[in-house]
């Protein structure tokens, strides 16, 4: 439990001394030992309660009031932002995860990274989209794979642009293109499909680096 609390504070760049109030939500928070651990962790400050049963409903009511813009409802100024819950990116040579959109990025967002072909005379590139925080793709979750084909043979390092376009609903559209060849392909990650992917995938058709 405390490891998770540590992680949340660390991700937000906060010290526990900066936390004024603690609200426990969820069935497990009724366990006396958990309440004791949280109280001790925050220097003896007991969590606010008991509102565990109504906390989610209250939050939903506040969200509804903000969306409706009801002038009769008086609320403290709040800014609610949609953010990415987890980083997404593509696999590069050696199984390295190249993050294109980092976790907690405000949505909607559109980001492009430039990669390079891994081999001389490479005619196709395998785009494998992953989610996760690991530095290696083996530690993360594969979302979809597809090939960008029809690349004209040339020396290694030919630029391939990969763009992630994510809307406020978290729908991810991935676009890969080689501009000089006018070759390009797009995939909607939420469909979790694979476009033209052989089994097993071609190990030579990988991306080499990220700018």
Structure description:
GO terms for molecular function: ATP binding; ATP-dependent protein folding chaperone. The chain is an alpha+beta fold. It has two domains: 2-68, ATPase, nucleotide binding domain (Nucleotidyltransferase, domain 5); 88-210, Substrate Binding Domain Of DNAk, Chain A, domain 1. It is 18% helix and 30% strand. It is built from three helices and ten strands. The protein has helices spanning 2-12, 32-41, 52-68, and strands spanning 88-92, 96-101, 109-117, 124-131, 141-149, 159-166, 172-178, 183-188, 194-195, 207-210.
β-strand percent reads: 25-35%
Subunit arrangement of the protein: single chain
The fold-level CATH name of the largest domain is Substrate Binding Domain Of DNAk, Chain A, domain 1
Q: State the secondary-structure class.
A: alpha+beta
Tally the beta strands: 10
Number of helices: 3
Secondary-structure element order, N to C: HHHEEEEEEEEEE
Segments where pLDDT lies below 50 for 5+ residues? 191-200
- Superfamily (CATH H level) name of the largest domain: Substrate Binding Domain Of DNAk, Chain A, domain 1
Cα(first) to Cα(last) distance is 39 Å
SSE blueprint and pairings:
Blueprint: H1 2-12, H2 32-41, H3 52-68, E1 88-92, E2 96-101, E3 109-117, E4 124-131, E5 141-149, E6 159-166, E7 172-178, E8 183-188, E9 194-195, E10 207-210
């Amino acid at each position: 439990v405390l490891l998770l609390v540590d992680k949340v504070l660390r991700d937000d760049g906060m010290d526990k001394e900066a936390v004024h109030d603690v609200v426990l939500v969820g069935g497990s928070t009724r366990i006396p030992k958990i309440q004791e651990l949280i109280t001790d962790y925050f220097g003896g400050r007991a969590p606010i309660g008991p509102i565990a049963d109504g906390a989610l409903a209250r939050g939903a009511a506040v969200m509804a009031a903000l969306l409706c813009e009801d002038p009769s409802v008086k609320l403290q100024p709040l800014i609610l932002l949609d953010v990415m819950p987890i980083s997404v990116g593509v696999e590069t040579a050696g199984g390295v995860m190249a993050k294109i959109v980092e976790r907690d990025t405000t949505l909607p967002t559109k980001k492009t990274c430039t990669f390079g072909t891994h081999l001389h005379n490479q005619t196709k590139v395998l785009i494998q989209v992953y989610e996760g925080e690991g530095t290696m793709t083996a530690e993360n979750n594969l979302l979809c794979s597809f090939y960008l084909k029809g690349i004209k043979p040339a020396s290694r390092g030919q630029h391939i642009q990969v763009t992630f376009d994510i809307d406020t609903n978290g729908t991810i559209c991935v676009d890969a293109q080689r501009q000089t060849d006018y070759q390009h392909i797009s995939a909607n990650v939420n469909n979790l499909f694979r476009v033209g992917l052989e089994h097993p995938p071609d190990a030579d058709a990988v991306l080499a680096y990220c700018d």
